[in-house]
Amino acid sequence: AAEAMAAEAGVLELPFLPDEQLTRHMRLRFQSLQQKNMRPQDGEKLLPPNEHIYRVDFIQQHKLRFLRWDMQLERPGKVTVTGTSQHWTPDLTHLMNRQLLEPVGIFWKKPGATEVECNGADAQEFGERIAELAQIRKVMYFVFTFTGGLEPAQLKGSIIFKA
């Protein structure tokens, strides 16, 4: 019911969904290179253990205006959110560094704090960029980097648009 009310008010909240399958694929690539003692391709982005792939499914693509991020962290730590320019159904196992978007969103919670802070101007610009990219994409993929002891299970995040 809350969702229906929010939709009526012209606000669209889209959750960041962990994409376990893509994360697993990219981890396997990382491991196989290590096992075979091979180098990654030039400019290839490998996924270390503290990075996870998330996605946003745009149920609406047009006339979105970025309002704000809603990032909830259950404990102190930091998460860096990097967008990717991968189109359609990507095989992110060969994600290239040049496909990582600037700026990034950085969200953190200090010990003892209740509020999550962020790099305001960059997070704002990044949010506006996502609203633009939504016009040409049904899905967008993100790399979430967890530091300071934060784990994916301790994060609940979404991006909120005026629709």
UniProtKB/TrEMBL annotation:
Pfam family membership, one:
Olfactory_mark
Fetch the SUPFAM superfamilies from UniProt: Olfactory marker protein (SSF63697)
Q: A GO term (biological process) for this protein?
A: signal transduction
Protein origin, superkingdom: Eukaryota
**InterPro entries per UniProt:** Olfactory_marker, Olfactory_marker_sf
What is the protein name stated in its UniProt record?
A: OMP protein
Native organism is Picathartes gymnocephalus
